[in-house]
Specification:
The complex is a heterodimer. Chain A is of the alpha/beta class. Chain A has a single domain, classed as Rossmann fold. Helices cover about 40% and strands about 20% of the residues of chain A. By secondary structure, chain B is mainly α. Among the domains of chain B are: about 150 residues; about 140 residues, no CATH class. In chain B, helix 9 runs antiparallel to helix 10. The longest helix of chain B is centred in the N-terminal third of the chain and has 93 residues. The chains are: A alpha/beta, B mainly alpha. Chains A and B meet through helix 1, helix 2 and helix 3 of A and helix 6, helix 7 and helix 9 of B.
Chain lengths: ~220, ~500
Amino acid sequence: MRNRLTYLLIAVCMMFSSACGDGGAHTHGVYMLVDTSGTYAKEITKASKIINYLLATLNPGDSLAVAKVESRSFTEKDIVAKVTFDKRPSQATSQKRAFKEKIQTFAGGAKGSAYTDITGGLIQGAEYLNETKSGIKTIVIFSDMQEELGKGTVRDFPINLEGFRIVALNVTKLRTDNADPRLYLDRLSQWEERVRKAGATEWVVVNDLENNMESILATR
Amino acid sequence: MADLKSWLLWPDNPALSVFVFGLFAMLFLYAARKPMHGIIHSTCTLISHSTRLVSRWLFLAADNMRQHNQSVLFTHAQEGEAVLIEREFERVGELIRKDMQEFPALQRKMLEEATRIEDDYRKCGIVPPPPPEWVSALESVAKIKSGGDIPRKLLEDIHKSIQKIHDKTVAEFRRSYEERHKILKSIQPAWRTVEKLTGEIDKKMVTLHTNAKQIDTHMGTFEGIRNKDSKTEHALTMSSFVQLAISSLVMAIAAGGAFINYKLIALPMSEMVGASDYITSSLKTSEVAALVIILMEASMGLFLLESLRITQLFSRIAGMDDRMRRRLTIISLSFLIILAGIESSLALMRDMLIADKASLMRDLASVAPTESDGVLSSIPMIGQMVMGFVLPFALAFVAIPFESFVHSLRTVIGAGLVQGARGLGVVLRFVGLLFKRLDRVLELTYDLTIVIPLMVERWVTMLRAGSPTPRSIETDHTDDTALTKSRRAA
């Protein structure tokens, strides 16, 4: 009788210990690029809402990082806040609160940049998410997708986004787009072509932030 | 269409091609008539024999299974009935022991009452002394011949005295009757007590009688089981079906309770084992852990009831000595209490986690926090905690319907298998019979396709024989029959 109980307990412990390493494949990693260049900087309140949505939706064990897109974005310095949520729900909730505080501080003092280096941000995001070893990796670009590179910034080389989902959020129309919509459409198709060529599994454009927020994250 | 034409001998003339093809086919089929008949016959015989064999085996297997089921059913029922009879005898013994213990006191009380009644009765029977024999004196006075004043005065005095004494005696009688009435009145409670005592005895006798009746019924069933009565077997099988239905229902209700239990602890378990760990692609470790806790509670409940001898699923536990069994009872009860405590605290944690998450959601949505209602808002939390503590104990009692389920399921499955084997046996026997007759049908159908060559053959045979007599046709038919018989014999 005692032996049976001991075996049962050992089996349960073994089951738990063996299960501990299988978490990565189900976790979600999200890297959000927030465009702070020019007129787009005023959209930062919308970005805060998106981040709040992500905080509410992501689960313990998931990772989230928010970075700003500046003149040269391939740097850790542009990461405003990053976190891998604890496996315990109570700790994850505390981390989410702290993350929200950080974002609020950032949103209060965001400054516009001269250029927009989206590609650099993408490479940085891919690096970060690869390090987190998340199962589902999503890079969210909160921008008008108009890339403007400064002098000496080289980004015309193939990038690797193998296994990534790329979500373009709130892609606003520029004044020139209004005059010629083809510019807008071409811009989006060029980006899609580029990320797909880089190996991205999915390209999603979400402009209706009121009703289509759930498209940002893939279902597990 | 082009493919079809490529098969034609003369693509330009399909009718001729089909005709020639048909002719060749007919000739080929005619040439292959005897081997084909043989194949048809052999195949049909093979199938027929095989199905009959399998059918016979199935019937035998069904009989064996039935016998086995019967012996298991009777053994189990015999054990159950023996326990019931034993219990009834224990009850009767208890009743008799208790009553016999009380009986001397009761008897003494009744004797006392009877003595009292008897005394009172005797007292009632005392008659006051009769008046003096005045009558004889009067007679003597009356015999005095000479009249005069003296006898008259004497008689008057006597009359006065008699009157006086009469009045006194009457008064004495009245008083005496009054006393006797009083005595009789005082007997009333004694009678009532006796009546009450008799009533009590009656009641006990009725209980004893009911128990005796129940023992009779059980003994009847027991006898039926011992005699392997088919009526008893049928009754026991039906009882198993009913038991299975009832225990399934109770277990379904218990499963509902277990599900609620699982829901209570699945979320807080993620706080202990991690919310992002998965065992398989869709199975969270926390959910499995919650399930394991519930199953452990059920197991502990099972061990508890086993050690209390309420259920008897494990013969090892039932065979333990009392000291060991008591230890097991204490251990399993302790585990159950610990698990119930854990579950109760997990229920509390669940509530806290949900409240924390709701607060975060409000923060993220920039909504002002709602004011709490104090005691009212804590009712769900208290309810969850109580449920978390009580449900494991409720779950422990699943062992009783589970035992019933296991025992009755065996009988029901056995009965189902017997019926299934018999049904399959009948179907296979029918198939065998069908194939036994089918070979002739197939042979005749085959002959129908080569009817022209057969007619020619018959015509040639008739020409060779001289004249077409019915005899020759009959012989032909007889040959066919003989051939079939020889094939069958082969």
